[in-house]
Amino acid sequence: MIQPYGTNIVTAEGKQWQFHVRITAPPFSEANNHLNWAETLRQAQSLSDSWGRYGSRDLHLDIYALTLNIISCAGFGVRQDWSNDTIIDHDKVPEGHKLSFLKAITTVVKYIVPILLLPTWLMLWTPLRAGAEAYIEFEDYMRSLINSEKKKIDADAGYENKDTRGNLLTAMLKVSASEAKNANKNDGGTRKTTFNDDEVLGNAFMFFLAGYDTTANSMIYGCICLALYDSLQDSVTEEIDRVFDECEQAGRTELSYEEDYPKLKYTLCFMYEILRAFPVVIHLTKMCWQPQPIVWRTGKETDEAPHVLPAKCRMYLNTTGTHYNTKYWSDPYKLDPNRWMNDNHGPTSAARKTGPVKGSFIGFSEGARACMGWKFAEVEFLAFFAVMLRQYRVRLAGNVPKSEVEKQIFLRCAGDITLSPYDNVKLVLDKRR
């Protein structure tokens, strides 16, 4: 279902999936983390400056716009800027296009479900026409960008986009070209080693789909929870202030990925607690390709009933059920970042992928097909909150009881593909400094 442009890392299976991993995994590198960190700081500061001049009219929309700008740069190498009134300028349409690049992306997201389910020709004859046109426009933009980057790589194998060095698209094309070159030397070119344009586009789209509203929704849930729980906001802000102070004492004017990102330990714990309480994907699909024995624990450690799942059995993992299981998480409805702390060193690498107890956290899925972008999400989340909380404090708007807001976020959800909060939870930003 999730391949509107071409086969990708999510839809590929077997040897085809292994081939896609070889090319899509390397782009998630330290070079991309550096770009993501720097661009998130830049975008968050621009947004913060805009809040200072005009205020935040809708924090939800502002955060969606922010993450859209970030994935546009760190994902595709296309840098975007805020206009003076905080609303992204969609009116600049290049010659030969009907929509701007960003307008095409935002519209594809708006119509993503019908785009995934319906043929384009049918959508063009329905009220969903705008979604079909945006789908076509986005493909045109991406194919043009892919062709441009491929020509530069063919001319110079060491080519890097000087403004967006490390972006996922260029890195993926470079890996693909390198794989093809090495294979031709080793096996005479008999093995498929390079992506065609459809596969590049398909994977680029998945990078976008997985890295845009997923992180935005986690950030929004984070903002709501900070507004709900003053002590939580105090603890996160205290750490961020300390890191900024140490940065200034070292003579640096902005936070560094190498020096300061590792210091945001409690903030990282806060992120993982948000992902535990509000998992982006509420159920995960897995497939058994061969008979798979499992053990069903019925409550007693010694009472184990073995089962064998047959080949080609499809399974659905209940993310929320796992994350609220009291066997692994005490008082699961309480937001407690400290549960992720490991001797004051933040969550361990293993815990970030599988939970304090293996299998108790599946926010990024688990196993060989776990999300490759988990570090990308960490970097973006931490950089955003570092900038925001250094300058602002977030609170609930109006006189809505906190108990009502808790019901909204714990018992209701919006979103067509990923978990997202209803936008009727209004927030206000108060300037700190």
Order of helices and strands: HHHHHHHHHHHHEEEEHHHEHE
Low-confidence stretches: 84-90
Please identify the structural class as seen in this structure: mainly alpha
By DSSP, the count of extended strands is 6
Proportion in β-strands: 5-15%
> Main beta sheet, described?
2 strands, antiparallel
Q: How many alpha or pi helices?
A: 16
Amount of helix: 40-55%
Globally, the shape reads globular
The end-to-end span amounts to 48 Å
Radius of gyration: 22 Å
Can you list the strand order of the major beta sheet? Answer: 1-4
Q: Residue-averaged pLDDT, rounded?
A: 85
Task: Explain what the structure shows.
The chain is mainly α. It is built from 16 helices and 6 strands. The protein has helices spanning 14-24, 30-54, 59-76, 101-110, 112-117, 120-123, 129-155, 168-187, 197-211, 213-228, 230-249, 265-277, 319-323, 349-354, 374-391, 402-411; strands spanning 283-287, 292-297, 304-309, 314-318, 392-396, 427-431. The strands form 3 sheets. A two-stranded antiparallel ribbon has the order 1-4. The protein is globular, with a radius of gyration of 22 Å. Mean pLDDT is 85; it is low at 84-90.
Characteristics of this structure?
433 residues; mainly alpha; two-stranded antiparallel sheet; 16 helices; 7% strand
